[in-house]
Amino acid sequence: MTNQNIPSLLEPIKVSLQDLLLDPNNPRFSALGEELHQIAESRFADEKVQSNTFEKMRHQSFDVAELRDTVKSIGFLPMDRIVVRKWKGVSQDGRIKYLVIEGNRRVTALKWLVQLHEVGKETFTESQLRNFTDLEALLLDDAVAGPVVSLILPGLRHVSGVKEWGPYQKAKAVHALRKSGLSPQETAQSLGLSTRAANAAYRCFIALENMKADEEFGDYAEPKMYSYFEEVLKRPNVKAWLEWSDDKECFVNETRLTEFYSWIVPDQEESSATPKLPEAKSVRELSQIIEDENALNILRGADGSLARALARYEVDHPEDWFPKITSAIGALKSLTPEMLRKMDAASIAGLNELTGVVSRVLKDRDLLKDA
């Protein structure tokens, strides 16, 4: 089936809000930094499962409160209809239930407003309540469509559209589509990404999955670690140091990879310790020293840190001082009259100290030149 056939699989229907089930396996939940455990479809309609999903959807990172307030102010405008499929379980009330494929934020906002009305925190007219609960949707014929379409539909909006998924969620969708049999180009087109961006996301996801399979460090391979591998694969020298192979879909140098893992997780013997590379952007600084054994040995030491390793690198590479001077000159030239007028005592003291250091360096240079 080609993506162009998707519209023929969508049938307009009218549905009641009470018959819509939020997706408890929503990919966006990985943004909360937790390990996702797939919930069996037969449990989707369980009251506690839906309640837990509703609470997750109300997390501030998903901006549902903002959407709720918008709907409260102007009503629910079904400009983009919610997409659903029939739930494969059996409901206790005998009604047909539908799983939300695309529109979980909107359905959460509507359920939230109805809940506030029911407990008396808001009061809406009958007309408003009908607007919130009697909905038009698109029913996906998933028996024909298959699971791939269920990824493409939300992906078109959340990878490249309205409320974007985070990098990990994008990568997970790319990986799932690739493994379903779509080519890299088809996957990228399905999600509205460039092929290059989709391929990069695929590599990062695979790298994190490989860490998850590691016996020693697998427990630390949470979605929030994705950014580390994103940085690694952006840095050609770090990528080469770990020996990434597209053919094998892994970092080939296992010794260095194990060492890298140890730098991005806390010391397992000290629960309060911070990693040697405390955040993903630390990989950018690592790339400066990755080819310098002296600096790396400092980092490897029991008390080693990235700051100490960078300091050693600068000592061993004094020729790198000039770009910093150029940067300082640019910063000074950018000072406006207003900034100069408001300059505090500490800033003035710093400039005077800099003037003195520059003067001494030039005098030392003249003495050495004449010696």
Describe it for me?
This protein has 371 residues and is of the alpha/beta class. The chain has three domains: 3-148, no CATH class; 194-316, no CATH class; 320-370. 53% of the residues lie in helices and 8% in strands. The chain has 18 helices and seven strands. The protein has helices spanning 47-57, 64-74, 104-118, 126-133, 142-145, 147-158, 167-179, 184-191, 195-212, 226-234, 236-242, 254-264, 282-289, 293-300, 306-316, 322-333, 337-341, 345-370; strands at residues 10-16, 20-21, 82-86, 98-102, 134-140, 244-245, 250-251. It has a five-stranded mixed beta sheet with strand order 1-5-3-4-2. Strands 6-7 form a two-stranded antiparallel sheet. A hairpin with a 4-residue loop joins strand 6 and strand 7 (250-251). Helix 6 (147-158) runs antiparallel to helix 7 (167-179). It is elongated, with a radius of gyration of 28 Å. The chain starts with 9 loop residues before the first strand and ends with a helix.
